[in-house]
Please model this.
Amino acid sequence: IGQVDKDKALMKYGFEKGDLVCISDELGYAALGFELLALKEKDQDLYQEKIDKINQIDSTIIDLALLKALKPEAKYSEGHILREHNTSNNRISATDITDGLASEFYEILNSDKKYSYNINPSNSYSKGIRIYEEKLPVEDEFKEIANILGLTYLDLFLHVGEDFEFLFTINEELKDQLSTEMNYYVIGEITDDNTVEIVLSNGQIEKISSRGYQHLK
Model:
């Protein structure tokens, strides 16, 4: 169905300590949309009660959440931009976020571990990912709405998926140049701590589980 130059292909592996961990847009709106649809199906009166409260905060969020859930758009242009910057001078790895950001963290680490092992089976693997709550592109209104629905906004952001955005890593030198060509958010970096963790706004560090969307369950 298509082809790409071998040296331009975006793979899930090949990042190094210090590389930046990025996402192509805000996350969690599709998850919020599915929660609203499920509530509407389950309890129409409670749904309307919640909708009335949500509209007092931001009347545009419901439409956006349902749009993200029911009519997702693939980031075609952004994929081409990343591909064109994937050269011998720049390190880029990438994957799409379908089953949740957290599960994709583990997906790229597992891919990179296999890649590293194939190059040198005797090497021990210690790479990890650290992200920061303060760097996550989440509006206060989104947090309030999640709370109204009895949900944790970080769960929507990390563990549900269906956003169809990119999770990608870049080397520091590419950051400014890439910013002139596409919108994206730097949310963390690659570490050598052999763990996936988040630094919360209060300074506490918590491990991120690999929990994500589980098909057929």
